[in-house]
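User: Here's a protein and a ligand (cytidine-5'-monophosphate). What would the complex look like?
Assistant: Let me lay out the input and then the predicted complex.
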Amino acid sequence: MSKLLNKKLSNKKILLGVTGGIAAYKAAEFCRLLIKQGADVRVVMTSAAKEFIQPLTFQALTGNRVYAELFDADAQNAMDHIELARWADLLVIAPATADILAKLADGYTDNLLLTISLATQSKIAVAPAMNQQMYQNQATQKNIQVLQQRGVKVWGPDVGDQACGETGPGRMLEAEHLLQHVEQIMQPGKLNGYKIMITAGPTREAIDPVRFISNRSSGKMGYAVAQAAINAGAEVTLVTGPVCLQSPQPVKLLTCQSADDMYQQVMSHIDGQDIFIGTAAVADYRILNIADEKIKKSADEMDLKLVRTQDILASVAALKDKPFCVGFAAETSELEQYARQKLHNKNLDIIAANRVDGSASGFEVDNNAISVFWEEGSKQLSLKSKNLIATELVDIITEQFISCRN
Ligand code: C5P
């Protein structure tokens, strides 16, 4: 039993994609090493891969049938592409030919492996293997860049003698080296064992039973931060205003409508949280007297009396047993000055500030660029997808949080 637990990849589900290159023979050794470390391995081969190595080799190594066809009449008891995509903790394509990299970058789905790659939410890694000219070709380099920007890990290639007689970059990494990468990527996250509460989305302040005041927050940034924290191993509680987003998994989801609801939800669950991240665009004002009935239109003008809502983030940061607090600041000018003011006024540990002046970042868009400030430092995160920004932000939060505790 203890021997089993010592294996670095015990309980890890790894989908190995093998494509048609001479390095396909090294994939068999890689597969053997994964299994030796306790991984549950399934193999998907392209038809070109089968020209280089027999599926039987992988079947014998893994003890499982090898998947190759998108539409497989014999596969009654086997997993289909969606099941395989869901099953995997990690998809490694080794070797990854220039062709598969191009098709992955462009989102093609004309074979089983590509379909799985598009359908999976697991991490994806590729181990390029090809002639050195093909590797250095601008088209391949661009495809690799596109994949990296999308979060795909690119392992290798090595530089050296090639099967074609040339020398240069394009050799697939050796199996032992690939195994090291897998072990590293599958390590428990840096936030393992920590609890994080995140607020996200807008709030709605009711005027009457059918009308409300709200703002343009989509919740995308907060949900991306929640997913990044989950990926880093944290136990996440997401307190969310009304949004149209799929919730990250696994998460404890607490839904709310108004700033007051959000305040109540946060305060009744904050005990024991290690980190609090306020990404929600909480309304600053609420309607003093919410009408019980729908307000009928009558006069040309109408006054609504608004009163301040409670500042949730500042209230959490004022707790005696305060968690590590991170805030967001959406500004249209003087970014650093206003952000640092908020850092101090609200007693925060970190503030992430972005411009919301109608540019390519900010509300309702998929990309963001933020500046992160803390007492002794700052870091700029340049324009990229909210998912990538969230991962980088969670890295910074982790670093500062851990150094605070030491
Ligand atoms: O003061 P300002 O609204 O610019 O501060 C933004 C930060 O404070 C965000 O992190 C937001 O989630 C949080 N906040 C809050 N409760 C409020 C207002 C803002 O938690 N009522």
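Summary: The chain has 15 helices and 19 strands.
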